């Protein structure tokens, strides 16, 4: 402390002198700064040069005192601060209490000596400074003019001593920490024995989760979500590229960026993203594999989870944002299955289409955001490699990454990409410290280590001498330019040459990836002409393929036999790798090179290769496609993830079936119109293939789950054909018809492939090009089918899925989506292009009564009988908000033209206007005296029209809510209203069977359209044909059939449901509610009343007339007609639709829903139950008693079930029509589309006749020879 006071007093003493010295130095500095100018000025004055030189020397001397003073003042400030620091720290550093073991006392003594030397240096500097301060400052100034004090050297002795102390302290604490860690490890090993398998790593944990038993719906959801197993994909990529080499990636584990990224300690600033950026070939993918392995090998119980994906630009299935998201979520759910709830509800609504339709990315994004916001989310890394190879949806994916970082602190992203993906410019809140750039400086050591590794492996097989080995190492390092891929490619060559030529072939290789590819291509071009052509063909085909090809597929597309294709791939080995029979380009940069230098493969460009691929594909498909490729039954439904037979008959042509038309569309029509005309004329390849093999091609697509691709393929070819002037008209007609064929029958074709030759062909219009050209390929059992419509009409497709009545439908503004609302409370979304069901929206608690899209198509509004309106995000299917306020069912809704206001009408007779942005109620319009049934906005949004059950239409000002006018004229309630586009005419429809057009300016109706209807009564004829009976309300009338004369009226006191004659015609039975009356047809008197316990639906007499069967909802009663006594009561579980007696009266048959029962009339026992797929309305026994004749066809019954002899064989070969299928002996034969499902059926032998709702009748004759 005393020394510090001396220093402070000394500094105060020389403060004035210091200022003067500094001022003199500043003047000298200024003058010397002008030296150059003065030198130029006196060049022409020799006599001034010598004096000026003397002045310059003097000025330089004057600088010395100022420099010395400044150096001392800087140094003394530093010394004082360090003296205070070490005084405070020394006691702690040298305390014996901080030493954990005796081993460290020697180290502590050494550290004490270092601190002593530091103190000496600090004190000497201060003492020298004090001495200087107390001298005469004039003498100090003069001395410094000639011999300046070495203050900088004195200060360096202080800093050197300080460095020694710091190093000693660091070493001491490292050793002490290591000793403590050993103790911790020893303690942890003891805990491990107690905790068991807590060290199971993430990889093992994920594998165990794959095998874990889950709820069935969760298992199905996880299966449909999966695109590829990223772990298997990583193994495949490693085999394609090279085995992972630790020294090539572990350098990043020692970087600050990685340390901060993997630090989840909340006490540190979070590093939420790590971006690895590098050019092609810099080892990004292998680095990512290394990091993923490093993170995967952490204890699963103690470390964050890990979900990852490898984008691959050459594979269309793995180069899009939806595939990235599906795989990330799939792995995340394996590790954290509790998050499944955020996806499961959507999956229950939409099934597998949730992950495949055009909105899949947005639906999955919503699910992932909800998972990340879940409080139970455990920390997780999400990793995406080669983001630059995500060709579709990359901007949306980057936006999701950015958003996710704001949702939860428990997620971190690991990304790799080329520099062209600029995350820094697109991510919000970008932090430069998140970037690891693979530049020359970072890669030098890893690449050199990789070179050493490759040399060592090569030397094991080649056994180079030391000099050759050293030369190889030198030449490779000189050319590699720190590029991993260059090294990997370069080492493929010496492996294939002798030791003597190894150095030479490396010396021939140029540095740089592009230059190396040029060199590789040049070596291929040196081959024999035949080999060269094979190599070029293989390279050309592979570079144009839309996905990696199997060696079988490649041989087809290249026009080579299998052996030649394999040989060509081997000769081009520097460009290819083969994994499990699949040929892959070595790297995305190889694909880029081949595309850029395609002229070296084919001087005329890609068009000729596309042509060859198309023609070879068509030829091979024509040769190999046949009906029933997989030997399935005609009713076989394809199982999920079906395994093809081995060998797979589609293996050679799988790629061709899917992509042949994509190559056709890749030929520029403006550059090569002659090719398109050649392919598409009447004798061209395309027309010939579709004309002959269309159905077989569609079957193959169905078998591999790509039927929708076939529909899009037909549309692509049609678009190309329609753009050319000289295309065959026959081809255009065929394509248009094929599109309608696939679109109309897609539902059954993709589920049951062989029904392409059955249902799809049979129920196409008789004039359909597809049907007429391919009728000979129908299922062999179909001999004849008539009664179908002649031509395709406006009806394109039937969408099935609702389990109850559909009350509302609406198209999205872009026409791509159809929405339907049902009584079952659900809303379904359909893709209008394919008819594919997309998803279900659930939330209403009562029937959906109305739906409407906002003008921009982003919001869907649904109204319900539950009195609410719900708003939905159409992209994600999520519920946004619920509008509440009506007191009764909402009957109609409409958006204003600008989409800002929603109008809703209700049975509470009011209409409400809602602000869509806020969901707030703006105003209520009242005035109608009954339920409002229809709403429409004027096109400018200023007027709202309302139709009501009070028969009027009212017009309202939407801004003020003022009623403007009332339109009157209908005599019944309004069913619908609509404005003309110019708003001058309003059309209204009413239950009075009229449509009226109104002038909105004058309120006068301009025109009325009317229609009429009629009524139908119940009529039966007596068994002898002499009497006609009609029943209406509570009266029965009898008529003479010969004369038409009315005979008598039978008055009943209740509404009549059923009327039936006894077999002899003498008795008439009428049923009404819970009572049956028996009438004498001769006198008109009723002579018996049978009281039933509930409403009677069916009445039937036994053949002898002694027994009457009456059926109610779920019960049959058998009555003795002579005594009115109920003999038997037969209990059914469902509503009974029909009953009939056997010819001997011993057996009664009854039908309810999809079940038929045969009863013993004497005992009431059930003899047999038959299950079927349709509702039976009529049934009787055949004459021989071996089968039942129903209104849906014939059903075989078991021996003795009809009461006949027990040795009678059941009938076989019986045709029956279920709701959706024509069957034979219970085996499904022909699927019935919705519009051809029968209301009535007649079957005779092998002939089936179907009657349909709209009056159409279809005939079928089958042959089973």
Protein model, in words:
With 1265 residues, the chain is of the alpha+beta class. Helix content is 39%, strand content 22%. The protein contains 34 helices and 54 strands. The strands form 14 sheets. A five-stranded parallel β-sheet has the order 2-3-4-1-5, with helices on both faces. Strands 9-54-53-52 form a four-stranded antiparallel β-sheet, with no helix packed on it. The longest helix is centred in the N-terminal third of the chain and has 48 residues, at 46-93. The protein is elongated, with a radius of gyration of 46 Å. Residues 191-200 and 1009-1017 have low confidence and may be disordered. It holds the Pfam family NACHT_N. This is NACHT domain-containing protein. It comes from Remersonia thermophila.
């Amino acid at each position: 402390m005393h020394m510090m006071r001396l220093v402070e007093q000394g500094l105060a003493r020389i403060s004035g002198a210091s200022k003067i010295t500094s001022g003199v130095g500043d003047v000298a500095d200024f003058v010397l700064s002008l030296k150059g100018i003065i030198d130029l000025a006196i060049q022409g004055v020799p006599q001034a040069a010598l004096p000026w030189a003397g002045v310059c020397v003097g000025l330089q001397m004057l600088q010395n005192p100022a420099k010395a003073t400044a150096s001392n003042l800087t140094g003394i400030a530093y010394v004082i601060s360090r003296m205070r620091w070490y005084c405070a720290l020394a006691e702690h550093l040298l305390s014996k209490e901080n030493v954990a073991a005796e081993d460290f006392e020697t180290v502590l003594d050494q550290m004490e000596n270092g601190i002593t030397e530091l103190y000496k240096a600090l004190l000497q500097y201060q003492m020298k400074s004090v001495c200087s301060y107390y001298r005469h400052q004039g003498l100090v100034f003069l001395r410094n003019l000639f011999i300046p004090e070495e203050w900088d050297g004195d200060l360096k002795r202080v800093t050197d001593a300080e460095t020694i102390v710091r190093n000693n302290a660091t070493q001491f604490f490292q050793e002490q920490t290591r000793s403590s860690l050993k103790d911790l490890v020893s303690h942890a090993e003891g805990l491990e024995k107690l905790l068991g398998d807590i060290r199971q790593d993430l990889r093992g944990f994920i594998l165990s989760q794959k095998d874990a038993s889950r709820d069935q719906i969760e298992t199905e959801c996880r299966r449909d979500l999966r695109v590829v197993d990223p772990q298997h994909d990583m193994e495949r990529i490693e085999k394609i590229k090279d085995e992972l080499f630790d020294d090539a990636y572990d350098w990043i584990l020692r970087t600050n960026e990685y340390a901060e990224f993997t630090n989840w300690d909340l006490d540190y600033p979070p590093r939420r993203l790590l971006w690895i950026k590098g050019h092609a070939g810099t080892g990004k993918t292998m680095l990512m594999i290394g990091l993923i392995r490093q993170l995967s090998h952490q204890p699963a119980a103690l470390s964050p989870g890990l979900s990852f994906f490898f984008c691959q630009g050459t594979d269309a299935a793995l180069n899009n944002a939806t595939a990235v998201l599906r795989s990330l979520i799939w792995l995340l759910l394996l590790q954290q299955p509790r998050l499944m709830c955020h996806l499961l509800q959507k999956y229950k609504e939409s099934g597998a289409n949730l992950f495949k339709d055009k909105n899949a990315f947005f639906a999955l994004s919503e699910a992932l955001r909800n998972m990340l916001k879940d409080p139970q989310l455990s920390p997780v890394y999400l990793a995406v490699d080669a983001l630059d190879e995500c060709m579709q949806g990359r901007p949306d994916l980057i936006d999701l990454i950015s958003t996710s970082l704001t949702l939860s602190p428990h997620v971190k992203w690991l990304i790799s990409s080329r520099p062209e993906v600029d995350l820094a410019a697109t991510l919000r809140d970008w932090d430069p410290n998140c970037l690891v750039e693979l530049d020359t400086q970072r890669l030098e050591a890893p690449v050199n280590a990789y070179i050493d590794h490759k040399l060592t492996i090569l030397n094991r097989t080649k056994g180079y001498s030391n000099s050759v080995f050293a030369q190889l190492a030198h030449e490779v390092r000189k050319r590699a330019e720190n590029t991993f891929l260059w090294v990997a490619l370069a080492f493929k060559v010496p492996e294939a040459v002798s030791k003597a030529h190894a150095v030479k072939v490396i010396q021939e290789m140029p540095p740089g990836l592009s230059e190396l590819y040029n060199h590789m291509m040049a070596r291929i071009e040196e081959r024999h002409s035949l080999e060269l052509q094979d190599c070029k063909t293989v390279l050309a085909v592979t570079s144009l393929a839309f996905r990696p090809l199997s060696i079988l597929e490649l041989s087809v597309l290249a026009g080579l036999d299998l052996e030649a294709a394999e040989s060509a791939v081997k000769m081009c080995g520097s460009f290819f790798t083969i994994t499990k029979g699949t040929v892959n380009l070595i790297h995305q940069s190889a694909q880029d090179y081949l595309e850029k230098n395609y002229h070296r493969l084919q001087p005329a460009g890609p068009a000729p290769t596309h042509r060859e691929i198309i023609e070879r594909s068509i030829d091979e498909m024509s040769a190999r496609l046949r009906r029933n490729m997989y030997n399935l039954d005609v009713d076989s439904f394809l199982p999920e993830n079906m395994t093809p037979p081995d060998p797979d008959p589609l293996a050679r042509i799988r790629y061709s079936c899917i992509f042949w038309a994509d190559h056709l569309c890749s030929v520029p029509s403006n550059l090569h119109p002659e090719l398109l005309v050649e392919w598409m004329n009447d004798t061209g390849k395309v027309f010939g293939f579709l004309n002959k093999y269309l159905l077989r091609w569609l079957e193959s697509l169905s078998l591999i789950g790509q039927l929708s691709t076939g529909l899009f393929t037909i549309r692509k070819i049609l678009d190309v054909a329609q753009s050319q002037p000289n295309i065959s008209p026959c081809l255009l007609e065929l394509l248009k018809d094929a599109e309608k064929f696939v679109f109309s029958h897609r539902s059954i074709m993709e589920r049951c492939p062989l029904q392409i030759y059955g249902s799809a062909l049979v129920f196409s219009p008789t004039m359909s090009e597809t049907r007429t050209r391919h009728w000979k390929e129908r299922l062999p059992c179909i001999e004849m089918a008539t009664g179908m419509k002649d031509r395709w009409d406006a009806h394109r497709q039937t969408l099935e899925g609702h389990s109850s009545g559909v009350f509302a439908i609406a198209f999205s503004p872009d026409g791509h989506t159809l929405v339907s609302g049902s009584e079952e409370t659900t809303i379904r979304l359909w893709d209008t292009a394919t008819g594919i069901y997309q998803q279900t929206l659930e939330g209403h608690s009562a029937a959906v009564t109305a739906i409407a899209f906002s003008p921009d198509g982003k919001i869907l509004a649904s109204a319900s009988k539950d009195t609410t309106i719900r708003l939905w995000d159409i992209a994600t299917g999520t519920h946004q908000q619920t509008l509440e306020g009506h007191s009764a069912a909402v009957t109609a809704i409409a958006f204003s033209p600008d989409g800002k206001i929603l109008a809703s009408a209700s049975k509470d007779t009011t209409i409400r206007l809602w602000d869509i942005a806020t969901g707030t109620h703006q105003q209520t319009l009242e005035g109608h005296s009954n339920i409002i049934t229809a709403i429409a906005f004027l096109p400018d949004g200023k007027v709202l029209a309302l139709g009501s059950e009070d028969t009027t239409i009212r017009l309202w000002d939407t801004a003020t809510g003022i009623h403007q006018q009332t339109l009157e004229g209908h005599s019944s309630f309004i069913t619908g209203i609509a404005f003309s586009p110019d708003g001058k005419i309003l059309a209204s429809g009413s239950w009075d069977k009229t449509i009226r057009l109104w002038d909105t300016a004058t309120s006068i109706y301009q025109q009325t359209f009317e229609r009429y209807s009629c009524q139908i009564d119940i009529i039966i004829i007596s068994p002898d044909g002499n009497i006609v009976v009609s029943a209406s309300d509570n009266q029965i009338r009898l008529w003479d059939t010969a004369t038409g004369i009315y005979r008598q009226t039978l008055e009943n006191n209740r509404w009549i449901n059923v009327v039936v004659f006894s077999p002899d015609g003498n008795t008439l039975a009428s049923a009404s509610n819970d009572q049956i009356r028996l009438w004498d047809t001769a006198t008109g008197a009723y002579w018996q009343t049978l009281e039933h316990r509930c409403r009677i639906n069916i009445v039937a007499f036994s053949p002898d007339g002694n027994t009457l069967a009456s059926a109610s909802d779920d019960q049959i009663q058998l009555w003795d007609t002579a005594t009115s006594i109920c003999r038997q009561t037969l209990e059914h579980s469902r509503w009974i639709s029909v009953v009939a007696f056997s010819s001997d009266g011993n057996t009664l048959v009854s039908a309810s829903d999809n079940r038929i029962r045969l009863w013993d009339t004497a005992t009431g026992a059930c003899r047999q139950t038959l299950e079927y797929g349709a509702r039976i309305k009529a049934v009787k026994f055949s004459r021989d008693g071996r089968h039942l004749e129903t209104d849906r066809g014939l059903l075989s019954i078991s021996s003795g079930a009809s009461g006949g002899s027990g040795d009678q064989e059941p009938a076989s070969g019986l045709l029956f029509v279920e709701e959706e299928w024509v069957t034979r002996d219970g085996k499904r034969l022909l699927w019935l589309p919705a519009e051809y499902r029968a209301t009535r059926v007649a079957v005779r032998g092998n002939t089936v006749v179907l009657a349909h709702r709209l009056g159409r009748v279809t005939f079928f004759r089958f042959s089973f020879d």
